[in-house]
Task: structure prediction
Amino acid sequence: MSAHAADAVIPHTVEPHPVTGIPNGKFGIWLFLASEVMLFGALFSSYVLIRTQAPHWPPEGGLSSEILNVPLATVNTAVLITSSITMVLAWASCKMGRIDRFRFWMGATVALAFVFLVIKYFEYTHKFHDGHFPSTNNFYAVYFTLTGLHGLHVIGGIVVNTFLLTAGTRLWKTDRDHFTNRVENAGLYWHFVDLVWIFLFPSLYLL
Amino acid sequence: MAETAEHSSPEEFKKHLGKYYVVFVALLCLTAITVGVSYLHLPRPQAIAVALAIATVKAGMVAGVFMHLISEKKVIYAVLVLTAAFFLLVLLLPSFTTLESAGV
Amino acid sequence: MSASKTHGHAAHGGHDAGHGHHELPFWRKYVFSVDHKIIGLQYAVTALVFLFFGFTLMMLLRWQLAYPGQPLPVIGKLLGESAMPGGVMAPEFYNQLGAMHGTIMVFMGIVPLAVGGFGNYVVPLQIGAPDMAFPRINMASYWAFLPGGILMIASFFLPGGAAQSGWTNYPPLSEVTQTPGQTVWLFAMVLLITSSLLGSINFIVTIVQLRAKGLTFFRLPFFVHAQFVTSFLLLLAFPPLEAAAVMQIMDRLANTSFFLPAGLVVSGEQWHAAGGGSPLLWQHLFWFLAHPEVYVLILPAMGIVAEVIANNTRKPLWGYRLLVYSAIFLGFMSFVVWAHHMFMTGMGTTMSTFFQTTTMIISIPSVVILTCFIMSLYGGAIRYTVPMLFATAFLPMFAIGGLTGLPLGLTASDIYLHDTFYVIAHFHYVVAPGTIFALFAGIYYWYPKVTGKQMNQALGKVHFWLSFIFINGVFMPMFFQGMAGLSRRLYDPTIYAHGRAIQGLNVLISWSAWGLALAQLPFIWNFFASLRHVKVAENPWQSTTLEWAAPSPPPHGNFVTPPVVYRDPYQYSEPGRSTDFHPQFAREA
Result:
């Protein structure tokens, strides 16, 4: 563990627990993801409630796929899916002892995440330019809030992955398994971000 | 972790990468399909059913393969089953309650 | 601040006896500490300060209820012309006091003390672990809690004051109230919820993964089971409120209409928003958290009561497995009852029957737990120590609180009782002479563990009896006020004839509340003065659980050698032994 941490050595930080079969970090990240399922669950619930009690949806007529930019969002979906495979390959590189390849694949993941955000930026600014804001009506409120919160999670993933790519790599020198576990846990978070988008994309853009 | 126990060498491990590539391609194909189906402009209930079904398959692949859920330990499954139950509750019950209410 | 004094004293035995090679600087050892004991104390002391603040808000509020429209002597002028013009409480200020009293007591007082304080300090010790699974996340959780709490308090000093739409913050009222304090409440809640989520992850992983050798699930002290279930409630129930807070922030700052219906008219004027939202959506998401939250308030308390009763009856808890299964069932059921807070919102009969049914079912595990505690007293060699006085009083007080919940859970009677003082009496009985008494029991019980000293027992008994009498004086009359039809959140009860008829009760309640405040003085004195007492024996209560295997106070890393567990947690009065307690960690048979 890092230099300033407690002198007390915490069991099962790297070696799995004999009964549960997992190390602490993996358990922790899955619990965090469970809470995230509830967070996005509540947001989807709000979308369902607002939409089912609206007289028309979208409120001002038309189709979601006409109001929102489906081609751009399809590209973004492909971008996130690709970033998921690069994330897996980053972890696999660690398992195979190849820190150089880890750097490549993790770098690719971060780069793809930036691409996602850039595309989102263009989507948003185009809407603002046309005079459509979250306050315009609840269709836009739901769209901006749900994709916005998802975007914040993408930013969070970028921060974590960038840390693992830079300062965090120090741990590779002293404890490879511990570092690999961290990459795996970051990967679990990142795949979850992809997973949320897999549901957001059709729900907001296509239906 | 399960993976460390099964794969002793980097060469061994490389053989198991195949499934990740298969899932990657499948995800891209399913994305294309889901967009393609949307152009058919199915009636709303069917459109929702198809879109959510495809999304669930995609999510299942990401969770099962990328997130290793398919070979995960019981304790994780237990947490996720509990979460799934509460997820369904929060997703559905507020709408049921509001729709059944006195027109609020 | 007095906090650092307690840190210094309490941690005194801790830092030198550890097996560390490097000495950490002061700010790393006591401020940004990763040691669960320091963090637990930080949580506990901070929470006690917030509890005291929240209590003060209520004492102010009680003046207006007892003497509506009368200027408050001395203090009235100190609070400024906007809050108390001419010393008379402004209605907006009354609403702020009400909303913030609830918010602060629940989110910044009880839960941080019960879970962040007691949980953090005791759980790793009771399971024989050197610390929590994620010490740095533990530190992060405290440092999300403190700014959140400070932000909440700071909101009083913003123009227009603090949030004033109830602790429940219902839109549209909360959204048409344009004060910045309302917005700050939402941001502060995001910080508090973050703190809670980080903590709950830590507890679950710690309890599952870091138990000592021989400590199987059914050998855990009930306190640990209670904290375990509580952590799942916090983990899974808080996120929907976080989502709702984000949406209300959007409504306030980005002018969205998640919770605003179409055609809203405020003070005779059309409200400028797109509309199409639902105020009920907020209620669903709020109560999805807030109902499990009340079980978060009671479960750790039940855990403490279990420990104190077993220890002071010198016999094992009656129905240990029943207790464990009931706690788990209670936790699960707590997720499916929330709309019993919404019976008056125009729900149809199918859903209201569903929620009424689940609410009736959830009373069963509570009754089972209470029954097990009462049965635990039977045949015991009861020692009426100060913790035991509080723990014993918990039983009838929780019974009153719980039983009076039943007419609220039944839709028909709830029609009359909803939003009256009956509701206030019900939930305060569970939380105040219920949970808070249990927390006092815990403080008196574990004080020797944390400090190595004993609190003065005579002063403790004075604290107990005065508190017991006054707290009943505060809350018992409220049942009658509610049944007489007096609404809650009412600035001036005397505007109604039915309020005037029972105004005498308000005077009685307020004076009991002020008496209750005075009754805490012996406790506060005792708490600090006892730090200068003589050191006591390592296990002064002669308890069987693992935390008493460590030195008092425990050093960094807790145990000199890793403990091993050989038996069940409450092996008291085993036939044929010379002592009446057989600790879990003692190797000899």
User: Anything to note?
Assistant: The two ends of chain C are 48 Å apart (CA to CA). DSSP finds 20 helices and two strands in chain C. Residues 110 and 392 of chain C are 20 Å apart (CA to CA).
